[in-house]
Amino acid sequence: MNALLPIPPAPAIEPPLALLAELTHRCPLQCPYCANPLEMERAAGELDTAGWLRVLDEAAALGVLQVHLSGGEPTARKDLLQLVRHAASRGLYSNLITAGVTLDPVSLAALADAGLDHVQLSFQDADAAQADRIGGYRRGHARKLVVARQIREAGLPLTANFVVHRQNLERLPEMLALGEEIGASRIEIAHVQYYGWALVNRAALMPSRAQLERANEAVAEARERLRGRITIDYVVPDYYAARPKACMGGWARRIINITPAGLAMPCHAAETLPGFQWPSVRTASLGAIWRDDPGFNRFRGTSWMPEPCRSCDQREVDWGGCRCQAFAMTGDAAATDPACALSPDHAMMADAVAESDVVAEGAAPALVYRRIRTAALVK
Amino acid sequence: MTATAVGEGGAVPAFNRGFRLRHDPVRNAWVILAPERLFLLDEPAVEVLRLVDGARSVPEIVDTLAAKFNAPRETIAADTEAMLHDLVIKGAIRL
């Protein structure tokens, strides 16, 4: 053996590609599958403008290329225009993730002028009455249809985002048609992810297997028909998959998330995990957090993995799946994601599916809506 | 649209709104920033795309590259058209 071989350097930590900036938890809608935590931040606790401007500077210097301005409803922030302008001045590609009901031609023109690159507009359904029921916002759907047109008239490219679940999946063909009709260049069909509010409402929201199969067919047909005109992003939900998805592209590998209060996390749901002290951008730089924070390093790469992940040839494809889902289902954030057929807990997924197939034939449980005042009741 | 049709008639390629070619100094790489995604580019693609300005036609781009690299025009044309065709399908470029 050659004892003089140098010790190989630790693998370099790749810089993040994207910043998910959750500017606020304030939102006029009350969707019962909201990705925000059950305990939401109030306006007074939000990071101020100077804080966000500094985050954008540090993100650009660190290697972030895209910033997703999200929430809550990001247009609730009075400094949104300033943040967009600042992102553009740093070369950052800015994406506004919005429910749209607060936008109008004047604000859209100003955002386009400030350098906004893209708008993702959420829809709750293709049917107005159902959409308004799920969003908990009267006449919201009609308003969104108007705003979609105004977004296109402002010259901004549009993604139509549909969150799908048992109560609207039947209308997926109509959703795809709606996306086409409003001039979206991209349609995102996002199955509900079951943690936080959605986990509370799982029994009411999880689709049946038969619904899912019809949905998969509708997407396949639309992809063929719209090829070269509209990009359709669609991922089969974990509960019906044999392999987990690479959640966030791998823990602390691609994306850095900042909460309204200024806490940095590798994922917008990471606050659901116990035992972490998430660092604040008020007291640490983004670069130091990304490289050195123990929470970011906890599930980074593959060395944290248990079997069967550790020796699996997919370990650098799915990066062990979703930590928040592993915790939500098994109580252990370091467990193999139960979405994987190789997980010892995979039967839990099948059980939830079987339960939803039974529920699908009876009456759905009442929805618990996302409201700051109901958060305490849910816990 | 077929790959062979891309360059016919002197079509002028341009980036669609929402797609932006950018040099990334941190990674020393060129990328196309796109709605909720990005495309990493190899060197030949970068050479072509830096000439995509909404004014130059495909034949003009091919001429420029053939001269720059002193390479057979047919080879450059085939590569350029295939690459642009791919980006049209992905929604990044219009012709």
Structure description:
- The complex is a heterodimer of chains A (379) and B (95).
- Chain A is of the alpha/beta class and 379 residues long.
- Helix content of chain A is 36%, strand content 12%.
- In chain A, helix 1 runs parallel beside helix 2 (80-89).
- In chain A, 50% of the residues are buried.
- Chain B has a single domain (3-94), classed as Arc Repressor Mutant, subunit A (Orthogonal Bundle).
- In chain B, 38% of the residues lie in helices and 20% in strands.
- In chain B, strands 2-3-4 form a 3-stranded antiparallel β-sheet, with helices on one face. In chain B, strands 1-5 form a two-stranded antiparallel sheet.
- In chain B, helix 2 packs across helix 3 (73-89).
- What is the oligomer described by this structure? heterodimer
CATH topology of chain B: Arc Repressor Mutant, subunit A
User: How many distinct helices of chain B?
Assistant: 3
Number of domains of chain B: 1
Number of strands of chain B: 5
Going by CATH, what is the homologous superfamily of chain B? Answer: Coenzyme PQQ synthesis protein D (PqqD)
Roughly what percent helix of chain B? 25-40%
CATH superfamily descriptor of chain A: Aldolase class I
Largest interface: A-B, 27 and 18 residues
User: Can you count the helices of chain A?
Assistant: 15
The residue-averaged pLDDT of chain A reads 91
Shape of chain B: globular
Report the major sheet of chain A: 9 strands, mixed
What's the order of the H and E elements of chain A? EHEHEHEHHEHEHHHEEEHHHHHH
CATH topology of chain A: TIM Barrel
Strand order of the largest sheet of chain A: 7-6-5-4-3-2-1-8-9
Low-confidence stretches of chain B: 1-5
Question: Which CATH first-tier class of chain A would you pick?
Answer: Alpha Beta
Distance between the termini of chain B: 10 Å
Per CATH, the class of chain B reads Mainly Alpha
